[in-house]
């Protein structure tokens, strides 16, 4: 149950961070997505959450799509 709270908090922060990052990033989108995917990887390792690189990349793409839809 505690992991669900971490995941929910992470998704909320990831969406907000991704939105700001995509709007204000001086880098190309691909580089920004790679950095976000790395942050997802680090978070999952720190909290013992099993998420492979493909799932992390899919999550980043989903966040990107959500941000674009919100604009």
Describe the structure.
The protein has helices spanning 2-24, 29-46, 53-70. It is 83% helix and 0% strand. α1 runs antiparallel to α2 (29-46) and α2 packs across α3 (53-70). The protein is built from 3 helices and no strands. The radius of gyration is 12 Å and the shape is globular. It is mainly alpha-helical and 71 residues long. The chain has one domain. The mean pLDDT is 76.
Low-confidence blocks of residues: none
Distance between the termini: 33 Å
What is the average of the pLDDT values? 76
Structural class designation: mainly alpha
The largest β sheet comes out as:
none
How many domains would you count in the coordinates?
1
- Gyration radius (Cα, Å) is 12 Å
Number of strands: 0
- Strand/helix succession: HHH
Present the secondary structure layout.
Layout: H1 2-24, H2 29-46, H3 53-70
Helix pairs in contact: 1-2, 1-3, 2-3
What does this entry show, briefly?
By secondary structure, the chain is mainly alpha-helical. Helix content is 83%, strand content 0%.
Name the descriptors.
globular; single chain; membrane; transmembrane; 71 residues; mainly alpha
